[in-house]
Amino acid sequence: MSFTVxxxxxxxxxxxxxxxxxxxxxxxxxxxxxxxxxxxxxxxxNTPIAGFLDIGRPAGWRVIHAISAAAQPSGPVTRDxxxxxxxxxxxxxxxxxxxxxxxxxxxxxxxxTEFCEDGEGELLERVRAVLGPDVPIGITLDPHANVxxxxxxxxxxxxxxxxxxxxxxxxxxKLAAGIMQRxxxxxxxPVTLRAGRPMLEEVNGGRTDIGPMVERIAKAKAxxxxxxxxxxxxNGGFGNADIHEAGPTVLVTCEGQxxxxxxxxxxxxxxxxxxxxxxxxxxxxxxxxxxxxKSYVASSGPLIIADxxxxxxxxxxxxxxxxxxxxxxxxxxxxCFGPMVDPEVAAExxxxxxxxxxxxxxxxxxxxxxxGGPLELTGTLVxxxxxxxxxxxxxxxxxxASWGPCAVLRxxxxxxxxxxxxAQMTDLQQFRAFGIDPAAKRVVGLKxxxxxxxxxxxxxxxxxxxxSGALCTPDLSKLPYRRVRRPIxxxxx
Length: 493
Ligand SMILES: [Zn+2]
Hints:
Layout (H helix, E strand, L loop, with lengths): L3 E8 L12 H7 L1 E3 H8 L5 H9 L5 E9 L8 H17 L6 E6 L11 H13 L5 E5 L7 H6 L2 E4 L8 H16 L6 E6 L16 H11 L5 E7 L13 E6 L3 H17 L8 E2 L1 H9 L8 E5 L14 H8 L5 E7 L1 H8 L6 E6 L12 E11 L2 E3 L9 E3 L3 E6 L2 E6 L9 H4 L10 E4 L6 H4 L5 E5 L27
Parallel strand pairs: 1-3, 1-4, 4-5, 5-6, 10-20, 11-19, 11-20, 12-18, 12-19
Antiparallel strand pairs: 2-3, 7-9, 8-9, 13-14, 14-17, 15-16, 17-18
Helix pairs in contact: 3-7, 4-5, 8-9, 10-11
Bound molecules: zinc ion (ZN).
């Protein structure tokens, strides 16, 4: 017997403190693909849809893919963007309602819209309204999800990635689709249980390469082998979303023995609470990071300085200048920095002639109060480009993306990648396609919290992490929360 499965990908991580809304144009910047075009663009990469197809194709599913849409993390999704993208999914469900046996959605799990705190819950509600309560729905999530009760009530199967950097997105899609196949065959009837704690996020931002999350993921995987357990998800949460249900959760997708599985989830999430002070990442000030860079000897690869606080992947504006200013002030030799997101300067430079001397007022424009205002710089224009590249690393391999119009500007001995589109640095091609080889540099400054590690740690001599004071500061107590439930850690002691 073969089944008809509706699939879609719709993801956004909404930093409610950001001034930049995720409008429809923000989704087209990163890419909106419909139906078979989406499968052609994303069906073989590290994506949920690739994982769904890994199971669905050999199982003989008729896959109806509605849409794949994602925007860079930023402020809440506008009503227009949400209605248009969710609308494609809902209309596709309507058009095939009598044939659809199951639904698989690749979501993020921290989407806030202009009109509701729980974008994923809203989407699931709209899909359920068309297909009714009995069609099984499975979703994959990013572990930086704020998983609401509504989401676990409306989806039968919920599975999060188990790695950060997220290198197992496809594997996660596969796991969810495998559970879906067993459900469609009538072998199992899964539900998803949820446990949370009153805290904004896991103390190490959910990183899984070192620290206590390593143990938790091992426990989760071991528990997945228990009878009646299909998936265990350990979500570090997303503390930059000021919503009632923000925070870490543990989910168990299972059947039978609810009390036992709930107790397991409670114990695992309790470990996040108990070890809420066990921070493993040291955060350096700009001054200390630059001092280390000044004397660094690149015998086994460059020093990588991650500008954690201005991570566009967490909703940072990508134009904070604090770290770059420090690097230029110290006159660092043989260095590069990227991205510096500044559409105005990128457009201006794009008109210039490589080799010419240019003066620009760079970065710090979205909110000069956070992470440093504009820098007045004079340098040499090295290269201009349309910004397109194809990733080749563990996260982005095979995926096409773009910085939009961009340029490389050399100031002193620092090559600066100036871009139009906001994105974090996760792939070497994001530098290399524009003539900058980070592996050959002595010092590399980049905007990312953790995802850069997948591609950059193998070429790095050393990695340090800097809190430049921008929007995504690790010190959440600096942010003006209004809507999270109280008391909550670390806001209330
Ligand atoms: Zn994430």
